[in-house]
Amino acid sequence: MVGNVIVGQSGGPTSVINSSLAGVYKTAKDRGAKKVYGMLHGIKGLLDKQYVDLSEKIGTTMDIDLLKRTPSSYLGSCRFKLPEIEADKSTYDKIFKILKELDIEYFFYIGGNDSMDTIKKLSDYAKIVNSSIKFMGVPKTIDNDLAVTDHTPGYGSAAKFIAATMKEIIRDGLVYDYPTVTVVEIMGRNAGWLTAAAALAKSDDCEGVDLIYLPEKVFDIDHFMTTVKKLLQKNKSLVIAISEGIKVADGRYVFELSDHVEFVDAFGHKQMSGSAKYLSNRIAADLGVKSRAIELSTLQRCAAHMTSRTDITEAFNVGGAAVKAAFEGESGKVVVLKRVSDDPYMCITETHDVHDIANVEKKVPLEWITEDDYVTNDLLHYIRPLIQAELSPIMVDGLPRHLNVNM
Questions:
Q1: Which residues pair with 253 in a beta bridge?
Q2: What predicted TM-score, i.e. pTM, was given to this entire model?
Q3: Can you name the residues that pair with 276 across neighbouring β-strands?
Q4: Which single residue of 8, 35, 156, 208 has CA 20 to 30 Å from 326?
Q5: CA-to-CA distance for 222 and 25, rounded, in angstroms?
Q6: Separation between Cα atoms, residue 396 and residue 11, nearest integer Å
């Protein structure tokens, strides 16, 4: 019998983040963990001594199956930045005191860049105070911007939802006998992986989106308007995909060109919203055509009814791999996915030093972005395996059944 385990979730949710939680919980219990605690609202909740004994919440195989299919963060989340160790050791002393009270031997944190910063700092402090607690990061983010790993759990399902939704928007726009333009805003602060997935809509039964703009390249509004005007001369309906984080040459986000309410989180990230609306209004005013802005917003994060089976399986596997590595003595590491084959698609799990991953942003390579405002086949070849197959929700009374920590 090994000691106790604690696990938390942080940052933006996904449709498969709870599959990783299930992987941590089941693997830890299978390997003899006495108790598996769950932090409520991540590291911030732990500081407030908010946690639950997961064995009292997840008692059956059916519960685990439900948890895997439940979108968003079952344990709640936070956007809380730990201070630098040199600036505030008291915060770390408090965390380690709580962990000692709970007899914690293994600490797992499921999240993206900012969450891996938490693992980095906690594992560094453990070395300073000679703590034997093992700290492991479990990757998660729909943005797919985590370094080293081939991709992140959560991305495949969000990409699947985006591509399917774009096909439906394209069909909708073609019903009218007058020109229309639809600008769809997709999440992606500085990396355009999600927006690139819109290109998957193009197939033998769909014309595909007309233009794609990623934040990796400077956005030229004059060029954009000229391109839209030319396309309208030959196309009845245009559908344009843009990343929420596209910027003009002076460094401003496009949404900052209009009146907006600005919210900044603990990590200094501005809330993104309004770029599609701004561009849609410009099109309507300058070109005199009907134009509509659509923000997929939080819909793309937790659309569990469009979950990729590949994604949910890999999410579960990285959770289990983190437990295996920690129980074998590793700490200060992150589980990463390594693609070993494209045809057939296959990824394996490895562990990597968190210092190479925390606070490092992986962007779409410029060679995968075309000069005519689209993306290359190489990028589509990279994404396509990640959206394959489905895992249907467990339906009750016509709607998906979810697991709720408060019930």
A1: 247
A2: 0.95
A3: none
A4: 156
A5: 53
A6: 29
Instruction: Show Cβ contacts of residue 264 under 8 Å, excluding neighbours closer than 6 positions.
Output: 270, 271
What tens digit of pLDDT does each residue of 347-368 get? 999 999 999 999 999 999 999 9
Burial 272-305 (b: 16+ CB within 10 A, else e): bbbbbbbbbebbeeeeeeebbbbbbeeebbbbbb
Task: Report the distance separating Cα 276 and Cα 101, nearest Å.
Answer: 50
Rg (CA), the chain: 22
**Token couple for 389:** 């197959």
What span, in angstroms and rounded, lies between the C-alpha atoms of 121 and 43? 12
Query: Which residues, including other chains, have CB under 8 Å from residue 398's CB and lie 6 or more apart?
Result: none
Catalytic residue, from 114, 143, 145, 373: name it. 143
Long-range contacts of 201-209 (CB under 8 A, 24+ apart): 201/163, 201/164, 201/166, 201/167, 201/170, 203/167, 206/167, 206/170, 206/171, 207/170, 207/174, 208/170, 209/166, 209/170, 209/184, 209/239, 209/240, 209/241
CA separation for the pair 297, 304 (Å, rounded): 15
198-207 pLDDT tens trace: 999 999 999 9
Q: Which residues of 65-78 are buried (b: 16+ CB within 10 A; e: fewer)?
A: ebbbbbbbbbbbbb
- What six digits make up the tokens of 23? 């992987």
Q: Looking at residue 3, what is its pLDDT?
A: 87
> Residue 400: left (phi > 0), alpha (psi -120 to 50), or beta?
beta
Residue with tokens 């344009």, as numbered in its chain: 240
Is 143 a catalytic site residue?
yes
Tokens representing 173 are: 């726009």
Do residues 320 and 111 lie in contact, with contact meaning Cβ atoms separated by under 8 Å?
A: no
What pLDDT does 262 receive? Answer: 60
- Locus of tokens 């985006």: 162
48 conformational bin, left if phi > 0, alpha if psi -120 to 50, beta if neither:
alpha
Query: Count of alpha carbons within 13 Å of 130, Cβ hemisphere only?
Result: 0
CB atoms within 10 A of CB 209: 24
